[in-house]
Design a protein that fits this description.
This is Enoyl reductase (ER) domain-containing protein. With 332 residues, this protein is of the alpha/beta class. Helix content is 27%, strand content 27%. The protein binds NADP nicotinamide-adenine-dinucleotide phosphate.
């Protein structure tokens, strides 16, 4: 591939939204010792992508400009570094790209072999790409933060998932049901049937008074809230939590960190837990597990929309808009 060019989409400074994305021709990257080169078939977007562009992770990310955004990719291995033992040219894979590198909005990307997982033919590239940041986050929130056992062997818990129609929320609802939890969910009226079909026991329209109050129709008190929405204060959660209930906040701002600190120092049994996904060597095992659940028909990736790379701006704007149902996919 050395010397050949590929189409890619990048931005060169903070801010600017979809209008700041630029289409460029760049050399196809060469895999280093422990990397695979993937011809991309699908890339899933996450709010994280445009939050980086907005400067939310400044000065850590992006490491440098111009930056090719997006991390969740699936495709076919077309070249491997000399140290790669687990993959060969022609393998279908799904991979989580490094935060520092990005690279998902392109025709080709290099991924670390430890963050790459084989993709069986039953799982489409789009279904697999959707699983990465969103699926890993839902899995981490439910298992590590909320303490659920996804094989159903743990104790029965009452779980609330806010913004259950979003990328993370739809996986969280389904995974919580695998853990035998009672699941209450919030979403907009148009997605109530979908969220019920994917397993939620009760669903609240967040625009109604009961929905805004997060009140379980059956009177359940929540052992854990997988909080995928934003802008809901602790005072709304507090009366709905069980004695040891936790709010796992996926988008913690300064107020959430203050609440977290106050609950800690006052030894409150009800806690706020800020969550930040930090992929590590365990992540590959979880990605494999999630891919296998999709293969077995136990987990569904809901696709909001698919957009060609040539029109990545539409996908980007849709993600910023915040009203996707499931995952937004870009296809080269
Ligand atoms: N900490 C981490 O490591 C981590 C990892 C992944 C994601 N996150 C964060 O988690 C959040 C969710 O991510 P995502 O990918 O799931 O987002 P998303 O797919 O963009 O979520 C969109 C969905 O949220 C629904 N929604 C918005 N506000 C709502 C509310 N107040 N109540 C109920 N539903 C609401 C929308 O429904 P309507 O269209 O009906 O309004 C839409 O279906 C984001 O802030 C993201 O940055 C954090």
């Amino acid at each position: 591939m050395a010397g050949k060019l590929m189409h890619a989409v990048q931005y060169s400074k903070y801010g600017g939204g979809a209008a700041a994305l630029k289409h460029v021709e760049l050399p196809i990257p060469t895999p280093k010792n422990d990397e695979v080169l993937i011809k991309l078939e699908a890339t899933a977007l996450n709010p994280f992508d445009w939050k980086i562009q907005n400067g939310k992770t400044r000065p850590i990310l992006p490491k440098k400009f111009p930056f090719i955004p997006a991390f969740d990719v699936a495709g076919e291995v077309v070249d491997i570094g000399p140290g790669v033992k687990n993959f060969k040219v022609g393998d279908k894979v799904v991979a989580l790209l490094r935060n520092a590198d990005g690279g998902g909005l392109a025709e080709y990307a290099v991924a670390k072999d430890v963050m790459t997982v084989a993709r069986p033919p039953e799982v489409s590239a789009a279904e697999a790409a959707g699983l990465l940041i969103a699926g890993l986050t839902a899995h981490m929130a439910l298992t590590q933060s909320a303490g659920l056992e996804l094989d159903g062997s743990g104790k029965q818990a009452n779980i609330l998932v806010t913004a259950a129609s979003g990328g993370v929320g739809l996986y969280a609802v389904q995974l919580a049901k695998l853990a035998n939890a009672h699941v209450t969910a919030t979403c907009g009226a148009r997605n109530i049937e979908l969220v019920k079909r994917l397993g939620a026991d009760e669903v609240l329209d967040y625009k109604t008074p009961d929905g805004a109050a997060l009140k379980s129709p059956s009177g359940k008190k929540y052992d854990a809230v997988i909080h995928c929405a934003t802008g809901i204060p602790w005072s709304t959660f507090e009366p709905n939590l069980s004695a040891n209930g936790k709010v796992i906040d996926l988008s913690p701002g300064p107020r959430a960190f203050l609440t977290y600190a106050i609950k800690k120092v006052t030894l409150s049994k009800k806690q706020l837990v800020p969550l930040l996904l930090s992929p590590n060597s365990e992540s590959r095992i979880v990605i494999s597990y999630l891919v296998n659940l999709v293969k077995e028909g136990k987990l569904t990736t809901v696709i909001d929309s698919k957009h060609p790379l040539s029109n990545a701006e539409d996908a980007w704007a849709k993600s910023i808009d915040g009203h996707a149902t499931g995952k937004i996919i870009v296809e080269p």
